[in-house]
């Protein structure tokens, strides 16, 4: 469908030019007083990238209901069209993570070409053994990679091998495994044996990892198993990644921890132990809420990036985390939510780039807790919006992506091409 993005973006740039320049110059003077060159920070902002999840461009749902809207993507090609819109406006999301079999292409080469024409890469494959597919011999009701029945485990391993073979054709370089395995009731599972079985299956997957690829394993405290999960926290994830070998890494989804867990500490430890593979960014109030990044705990997001930027600046060997979003939208337009999240993650990164690390180190040496926190707060409370906007502008994106997107009426226009599934209550606003 033809939206005149170039014209809309041009309008937005013209409208905002004077105010943006004013704000940017003012911030530039403020930062210069702190010994920071705003142009250098802008370059770092522009170089930042975070992948979007193909599954995030469709409306999610809860275990109670899903409210599909008109104009939603109906297949992986339409999903990539939506991902293209996101990147067209925010300029920091050129990579898309695929979920298999939700995104299973009939012709992988055609899908890769379709993505390439839109300036997108397909860097990570995600396997799905947490639900049954219409055609499959064995059920995952009681688990997949850790199932008691070897036939179920073999089927789940085969699915992961398939994902990686497909990924090679798509140009991916990483495979990510999250399982729903666990127990809903005390006593349901022999906890140690389930772990042994999981590791056995993961070894088969690790051994088939294509050359140059990394394997990510994602822990989660609970859900869909409500009493225990097999890969329940970062410590277990770390142990498993170590057991598997040097190309296995831990993936941290911000919504997969117990309330109040100090996630930046988890991140720091995984960096220190050489096993931080990447992130699924989102935000949460209670559990795996999959809310937009930065909507509930922006300071926590900043503190996570404080660890990441420190590690990058210290050139910690092997430090090369992959940044991805993982969220689900029930009440917002997924394109808007993903744009907001990408920009919030970028904001936290840029704020972390402003931390006066020499001063922080000195306060830490002197055990000056007040000044150490003040140093972090100085960076966190700096309004870096003009830097982000200028980076987008220089990269050909929108100064105000939400405004441009709304002006495009993309979803309304698409509603005709992609009608909602009214049998499931879609389309009623
Ligand atoms: C899980 C987990 C996985 C994602 C699925 C859809 O909670 O976060 O990363 O693939 O949801
Ligand atoms: Mn996730
Ligand atoms: Mn999740």
Architecture blueprint of SSEs:
Layout: H1 5-33, H2 38-47, E1 52-53, H3 76-90, E2 95-100, H4 108-117, E3 121-127, H5 150-170, E4 174-177, E5 182-183, H6 191-207, E6 214-218, E7 228-229, H7 234-244, E8 248-253, H8 263-272, E9 276-281, H9 298-313, E10 322-325, H10 334-353, H11 357-365, H12 369-380, H13 385-394, H14 401-408, H15 410-417
Parallel strand pairs: 1-2, 2-3, 3-4, 4-6, 6-8, 8-9, 9-10
Antiparallel strand pairs: 5-7
Helix pairs in contact: 1-13, 1-14, 2-10, 2-13, 3-10, 5-6, 8-9, 9-10, 11-12
Please describe what this structure looks like.
With 429 residues, this protein is an alpha/beta fold. Helices cover 48% and strands 10% of the residues. The chain is built from 15 helices and 10 strands. The strands form 2 sheets. The chain has an 8-stranded parallel β-sheet with strand order 1-2-3-4-6-8-9-10. A two-stranded antiparallel sheet has the order 5-7. It is globular. Bound molecules: beta-L-rhamnopyranose (RM4) and manganese (II) ion (2 copies). One manganese (II) ion (MN) is lined by residues 253, 255-256, 288, 326. One manganese (II) ion binds next to loops.
Poorly predicted runs of 5 or more residues = none
Cofactors and ligands: beta-L-rhamnopyranose, manganese (II) ion
The SSE order reads: HHEHEHEHEEHEEHEHEHEHHHHHH
Number of helices: 15
What is the helical fraction, as a range of percent?
Answer: 40-55%
Rg from alpha-carbon coordinates: 22 Å
Instruction: Give the biggest beta sheet.
Output: 8 strands, parallel
Intertermini distance = 23 Å
Strand order of the largest sheet: 1-2-3-4-6-8-9-10
Question: Quick check: average pLDDT?
Answer: 96
**Structure summary, number of beta strands:** 10
Percent range for β-strand residues: 5-15%
Global morphology: globular
């Amino acid at each position: 469908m033809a939206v005149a993005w170039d014209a809309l973006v041009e309008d937005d740039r013209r409208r905002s030019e004077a105010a943006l320049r004013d704000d940017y110059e003012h911030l530039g003077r403020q930062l210069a007083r702190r010994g920071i060159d705003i142009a250098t920070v802008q370059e770092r902002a522009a170089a930042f990238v975070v992948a979007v999840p193909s599954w995030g461009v469709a409306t999610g749902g809860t275990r109670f209901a899903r409210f599909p809207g008109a104009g939603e993507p109906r297949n992986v090609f339409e999903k990539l069209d939506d991902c293209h819109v996101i990147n067209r406006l925010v300029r920091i999301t050129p990579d898309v993570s695929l979920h298999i079999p939700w995104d299973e292409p009939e012709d992988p080469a055609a899908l890769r070409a379709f993505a390439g024409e839109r300036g997108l890469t397909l860097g990570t494959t995600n396997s799905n053994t947490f639900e049954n597919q219409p055609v499959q011999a064995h059920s995952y009701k009681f688990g997949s990679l850790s199932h008691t029945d070897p036939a179920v485990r073999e089927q789940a391993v085969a699915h992961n091998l398939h994902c990686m073979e497909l990924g090679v054709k798509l140009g991916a370089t990483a495979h990510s495994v999250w399982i729903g395995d666990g127990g809903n009731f005390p006593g349901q599972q022999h906890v140690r044996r389930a772990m042994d079985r999981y590791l056995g299956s993961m070894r088969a997957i690790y051994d088939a990892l294509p050359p140059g690829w990394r394997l990510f394993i994602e822990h989660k405290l609970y859900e869909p198993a409500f009493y225990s999960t097999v890969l329940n926290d970062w410590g277990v994830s770390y142990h498993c990644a170590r057991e598997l070998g040097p190309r296995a890494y831990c993936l941290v989804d911000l919504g997969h921890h117990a309330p109040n867990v100090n996630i930046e500490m988890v991140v720091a430890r995984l960096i220190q132990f050489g096993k931080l593979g990447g992130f699924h960014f989102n935000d949460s109030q209670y559990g795996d809420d999959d809310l937009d990044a930065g909507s509930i705990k922006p300071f926590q997001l900043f503190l996570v990036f404080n660890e990441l930027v420190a590690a990058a600046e210290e050139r910690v060997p092997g430090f090369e985390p992959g940044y991805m979003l993982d969220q689900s939208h029930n009440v917002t337009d997924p394109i808007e939510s993903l744009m907001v999240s990408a920009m919030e993650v970028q904001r936290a990164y840029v704020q972390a780039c402003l931390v006066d690390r020499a001063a922080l180190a000195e306060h830490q040496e002197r055990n000056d807790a007040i000044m150490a926190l003040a140093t972090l707060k100085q960076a966190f409370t700096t309004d870096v919006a003009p830097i982000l906007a200028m980076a987008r502008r220089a990269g050909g994106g929108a100064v105000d992506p939400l405004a441009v997107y709304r002006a495009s009426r993309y979803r309304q226009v698409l509603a005709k091409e992609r009608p909602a599934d009214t049998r499931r209550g879609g389309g009623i606003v």
